[in-house]
Amino acid sequence: MTATITAGAMLKGWRTRRRRSQMDLALEANVSTRHLSFVETGKAQASRALLLDLATRLDVPLRERNALLLAAGYAPSYAESALEDLTGVQEALQHLLAGHEPYPALVVDRRGDVVLANRAVRLLLAGVDDTWLTPPLNIYRLALHPEVLDVRNRDEWSAHLLHRLDRLVDLTGDPRLVALRSEVGPWVGDGRTVRVHDRAAQLMLPLHLGHPDHGDLRFFSTITHFGAAFDVTLDELSIESFVPADEHTRRVLTQPTVVPSSMPMP
């Protein structure tokens, strides 16, 4: 039989994960340390309002806030919609992706699965075997596996992605992310084989790709999140955009024949 995790234990877990003391959190939430201790041990039942307030102060993601409320016997507070049901959001995302062309941009969920992409993303996937292009595409699997993308600065880029994935695991505690981290870890070792002196000489770390037709391509990337999201799906989406890091890459991307007319994925 599987033991049920109580709301108090979950709350204590999040407080510990965020490295907050009971006294510090209680003072901030304007409750007594004794009451917070009783909530965590199950000797007292926290109100719905208190749980949401504590979860906000601990920066608990929306999906996990719902789980906390359910464990306490309350209904979830945040909806989880399918992207296709968020009509205005999906249209806005598609507009942003199209507006970024001829440069690549994609929308990924919390696990790194691609949910939308513009046409220029196909350029990044040139030469990738079709067996890796079956949805859902996962940016961590694609970039970290040594036999998929020709990443020329693999040590540095792998270290960057592993740090990003580790941070997400720490932030969310999502077991699916923990499993993904365990899956990709053996492909790249501990991710610490980074040439620090090279990184210090750069403004930011580029993605350096080898392309079968256009040689070396270099990109800078940016990640954008929705602000003040109140839907679990929307809260977990991010837009990853790539821009040329050198003149050669810019010239390649702005050639009219480079960006294909077909979409590489949904």
From TrEMBL:
Which InterPro entries does the record associate with it? Answer: Cro/C1-type_HTH (IPR001387), Lambda_DNA-bd_dom_sf (IPR010982), MLTR_LBD (IPR041413)
Domain HTH cro/C1-type, chain residue ranges per copy: 11-65
Signal sequence, renumbered to the chain: none
Give the matching SUPFAM superfamilies. lambda repressor-like DNA-binding domains
Q: Which domain of life is it from?
A: Bacteria
Q: Which Pfam families match?
A: HTH_3, MLTR_LBD
What is the protein name given in its UniProt record? Helix-turn-helix transcriptional regulator
Q: Which organism is it from?
A: Actinomycetospora aurantiaca
